[in-house]
Design goal:
This protein has about 110 residues and is mainly α. It has five helices and two strands. The model has no long low-confidence stretch (mean pLDDT about 80).
């Protein structure tokens, strides 16, 4: 399964984010200044190259004078399939030209 930033519901989150920013007539630089970041922060989000965590989502929504609950409802309404959390394989060294992969999580202190 692809990483959630490049697939899944992330493109819908970006679409809603861009619509909200444009509805408030803000440029990348203006929005970035409102959340005390630089312009590339907003640009990376809108190009789909950076994830937005929940607290950033709230800060950005508030800066755009948008209701974060309404924005999230828009995102959820565009996703037409169940959203799941997938476990990624953990890389555990190499054997010759091949990587050894395991699905077991590492315990603290064991490597």
């Amino acid at each position: 399964m692809p990483k959630t930033i490049f697939g899944g519901g992330h493109p819908y989150l970006v679409e809603v984010f861009v619509e909200a920013r444009k509805a408030d007539c803000l440029t990348h630089a203006q929005l970035a200044q409102l959340v005390d970041k630089d312009q590339t922060f907003v640009s990376l989000i809108e190009r789909g190259q950076r994830r937005v965590d929940v607290l950033e989502f709230l800060a950005l929504a508030n800066a755009m004078k948008a209701n974060p609950v309404a924005l999230m409802e828009k995102v959820c309404s565009r996703i037409t399939y169940p959203v799941t959390i997938q476990h990624r394989p953990i890389r555990r060294g190499r054997i010759g030209p091949f990587r050894v992969l395991t699905w077991l999580p590492l315990k603290r202190g064991l490597r």
